[in-house]
Every structure is written in C-alpha cells, then in structure tokens.
C-alpha cells in the first residue's frame, strides 16, 4: 500500500507578501514547503473571501 503525500495550507499574509515581493531567495511559507518536498500527490490551499 502506497501512502499519498498531501499538503494542506492556509494562504496567509506572509504568502501574499512573498508573492508580491517576487524575491526568489525568500519564498513564502507555502512555496517553501513545496520546494522542500520532492512531490505532493495533492495540494489543498485554504483561504477566506474578504469581500
């Protein structure tokens, strides 16, 4: 039986700030998790609609 690797993450202010800064040396927390892991079978990103 093969285990799947899932990432569940809340998109937060640090992720938005890192995306806006476009600084490849300091990615946000979600990007860091994606880069640190060879592969995820599923990625679930959570956010809230602030409108």
Task: Give an account of the 3D structure.
The protein has helices at residues 13-21, 29-36; strands spanning 6-10, 42-46. The chain is an alpha+beta fold and 51 residues long. It has one domain. Strands 1-2 form a two-stranded parallel sheet. The longest helix is centred in the middle third of the chain and has 9 residues, at 13-21. The model has no long low-confidence stretch (mean pLDDT 90). This is Sigma-54 factor interaction domain-containing protein. It comes from Thauera aminoaromatica S2.
H/E series, N to C? Answer: EHHE
Low-confidence stretches: none
Oligomer class: single chain
How helix-rich are the residues, as a percent range? Answer: 25-40%
* Major beta-sheet overview: 2 strands, parallel
Mean pLDDT: 90
Instruction: Compute the number of helices.
Output: 2
Q: What is the secondary structure topology, with strand pairs?
A:
Elements: E1 6-10, H1 13-21, H2 29-36, E2 42-46
Summarize the structure.
With 51 residues, this protein is an alpha+beta fold.
Keywords for this entry:
alpha+beta, two-stranded parallel sheet, 2 strands, 51 residues, Sigma-54 factor interaction domain-containing protein, 2 helices, 20% strand
């Amino acid at each position: 039986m093969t285990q799947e690797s899932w990432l569940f993450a809340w998109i937060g202010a640090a992720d938005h700030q890192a995306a806006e800064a476009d600084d490849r040396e300091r990615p946000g927390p979600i990007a860091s998790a994606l880069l640190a892991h060879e592969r995820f079978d599923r990625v679930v990103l959570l956010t809230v609609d602030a409108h």
